[in-house]
Amino acid sequence: MADPRHTAAAVKDAIGVLGGGFMMSREAKALCEQNGLGGREMYFRGRCGVLGEVDADVVTAACVFFPAGHVRESWEGGRSLPADKAADMYASACHAWGRRRLGGFDGCARLAGLLEPVIAEASVLGAPLFAGWRALPPPPDAPARAAHMLHVARELRGGVHGMAVLSLGLSPLEATLVGTHFGSPTGLADGVAMARFLQWPEPYPEPSARAVELRARAEELTDELLAPAFAVLDDAQAGELIELLGRARGL
Prior knowledge:
Pfam families: HTH_67 (PF21863). By secondary structure, the chain is mainly α.
């Protein structure tokens, strides 16, 4: 049987890029214009609206890798858009992006079908954004459904990875600075560039060799924690999921 840790590691970058692709899209930008919100205001209200009308500290706790001050400014700045409405709008943008970006991909239905049992099997513990997005109804058409499942799967890894990083004693900023971010839809791989994108204030500390080691261990631990969810796939299904994600990413 395929090692589910290997499957989790093999799919992480494609799920990261495709699952978050709509956040950088014309569909997301249109939401900002329609609601008179800045990009980060719409991002936090839309992505984290599944948490409800909570204090900004709850959003910081769920997102992990953003500085608390930036989260509060953005979350509070978007209060004119109710959280539940923002989440529904963001989901609709995800679906619209899927129809545009994946509409010509003949593997959408199968891709969604392979991700669905993984998502259903996964624990929600420590992954509140995953839990919230999993509770939203997926659309019926294959391209939109694939985009939806990709985003939910991305939130799953994001929540579990946050737990792994913190459990090893790394701060979110340290983990960002020493990481390589090939699974980011931003196209940024360098840690310093990503820290700036996330709005961490400079100057940044020089990462230690120990931080580099712990960051690598955090990736391994994330794969280990996700293994039970990916274990629902047999060898053929795991290989098919990896292949379909590679094709979809290359579109």
